[in-house]
């Protein structure tokens, strides 16, 4: 199957480039006829070795991660060390939250929040550019240094995402459960990025001093069962993620809802495996690695009769770190392609582009900080100058 031809994801027949117009992303698709097939399966990795004392175990895992990152950009991981209780509690609270009366959820509407946190109703975003928008509702919250015992407390206020939470009288355990979930995933991500460092032939602690106030955004998602053709009704349109990597937890549905685009333009279905998280790489990782690690296009369509819930956790290094291409990813054959950038600049444009209805999207130019200046390798924003 070729990639869907929609306004935003146009894989023109005969063309070898997929354009996600709203996101400014292009991906090369190989002509199917060249004989070299793209991936047809998403690898599953046992990641328990990330907690092993033996370097050899960790290197072995890093080799498997490198293979998945360079060929697919997606993997499922098991034995990740997160307790089933934390996961079950998060899904139970998610379900209860989305069952709240519409007016309670609307009180937390993202339009009221300059940091894109809070509630998005059905069809609010239009990531794939389809006429009706995305058939999902969501609740987003960001990193809050108050809940990170391992943070550096050096977070410039411009980076802080101010969260909105439902009142305790309507959702008594929602906030505490979701913060606990975020803390568990943050600990996992800080551990897992060490394996990514090894996979990139870097010292294991290469990223450690860039994680004091990391991006650790959570989006709780509800996709009702949907009908209609793939061009009419979609849960979340074709897109790539923005940050370094995403760790997704999903409820089981008979019909695999998450689909990943391979280089032949085929949507490969990801079958949820019990006890697994999905990990996929984002554009920032692809950029840092000079395109060696792939940030792969994906989408969600919830066919069948089940409600689907998923909780992606978006992870990135400190948003004010100016990141150039990683030294191990520049070679004579693959010279540096990208200028250094901060995740702040990289991600803000993308968030606005996907939310044309957000009041701030219309005044994008005014709300962006003036260009930062770089002092001692650290970008400095206007309020601190
Ligand atoms: O619902 C899912 O499984 C994936 C969600 C996703 O891709 C995203 O929020 O970026
Ligand atoms: Fe995604």
TrEMBL record:
Keywords: Iron, Metal-binding, Oxidoreductase
PROSITE patterns linked: FE2OG_OXY (PS51471)
Pfam hit, one: 2OG-FeII_Oxy
GO molecular function, one term: metal ion binding
Source domain of life: Eukaryota
All copies of domain Fe2OG dioxygenase, residue ranges: 214-317
GO biological process: small molecule biosynthetic process
InterPro entries noted in UniProt: DIOX_N, IPNS-like_FE2OG_OXY, IPNS-like_sf, Iron_ascorbate_oxido_reductase, Oxoglu/Fe-dep_dioxygenase_dom
Gene3D superfamilies for this protein: B-lactam Antibiotic, Isopenicillin N Synthase, Chain
Residues in coiled coil: none
Family: Belongs to the iron/ascorbate-dependent oxidoreductase family.
Protein name from the UniProt record: Fe2OG dioxygenase domain-containing protein
Organism of derivation: Cladophialophora immunda
Lineage summary: Eukaryota, Fungi, Dikarya, Ascomycota, Pezizomycotina
